[in-house]
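Entry 12.
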Amino acid sequence: MPKSHTRLSRGLSVFPIAGEGLCFTVRSRSRPRLEHRVELEAYDFNAKCGCESFEFHMEGKLKRGERDSIGDRYRCPHIRAARNWLLDRRLLPQIAGITNGKEKR
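Predicted 3D structure (tokens):
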């Protein structure tokens, strides 16, 4: 397994795709040999997933312009896992690095 792999969101394995920005593969929980491609920048950062649930139940609504700006209504577990990976492994360490050494108010 790649070094940057982690298990998040109910045991889903997340792998960033090298050289593809905010794209990930997320291993299916119910079918461990199946991986879904997640593109976090799609649909104005709601994201897009190649899983059946997203394609059949959510993508059509996003294409029609529906959005849930503060919730996960249009995000499958694979999208949520990739977003968690990005937050936990990339953004929070960067924020911590910026705030280290600065006085907290």
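Annotation: Helices lie at 42-45, 52-63, 77-99. Residues 1-8 have pLDDT under 50 and may be disordered.
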